[in-house]
Amino acid sequence: MSSDGPALPVENVQSYPRPPLVEAVPQRIRIVFADTLIVDSFRAYRVLETHHPPTYYIPPEDVVCDLVPASGRSFCEWKGFARYFDVRVGNRVSRKAAWCYDEPTRTFVQIRHHLAFYADKMDGCQVGDLTVDAQAGNFYGGWITANLRGVPKGAPGTEHW
């Protein structure tokens, strides 16, 4: 095991459960924005759902940046209502780059107030020693890492799988 936690196992997004589940993440999660390490955590959770790369949720105590409430909300049939934040470090702002569930459903109570970040709106994200690519599309916030197999939804033609 490295200082970033155990290696990520090979997983197929088609084998993830439906309904989704939440689980603790043993790997180190890091996010860089505006040349600043804004997340460095061993206390994250991830949500796994069929056809989705995992979405990672960070405890707010492990986030070091300004989070400015943004307009709008969204609804997930599994987790409930999400609210959004602009991420600001110094003079740099990324609009609607993070979200959280203040009152998630009972199944997802572990992620209450935890923050998820769109990888494509950050300068860099890592799970353990693996670099993250963003899930395709303009809505889903899953993180794609080299250990994942299968076809995640999000690209044109896959939105309603």
Describe this structure in words.
- By secondary structure, the protein is an all-beta fold.
- It has one domain (11-149): Domain of unknown function (DUF427) (Metal Binding Protein, Guanine Nucleotide Exchange Factor, Chain A, Beta Complex).
- It contains no helices and 15 strands.
- It has strands at residues 11-12, 21-24, 29-33, 36-41, 45-48, 55-57, 66-76, 80-89, 92-100, 116-117, 124-127, 130-131, 133-134, 143-144, 148-149.
- The protein has a 4-stranded antiparallel sheet with strand order 4-3-11-12, with no helix packed on it.
- A hairpin with an 8-residue loop joins strand 13 (133-134) and strand 14 (143-144).
- It is globular.
- The chain starts with 10 loop residues before the first strand and ends in a 12-residue tail after the last strand.
- The model has no long low-confidence stretch (mean pLDDT 94).
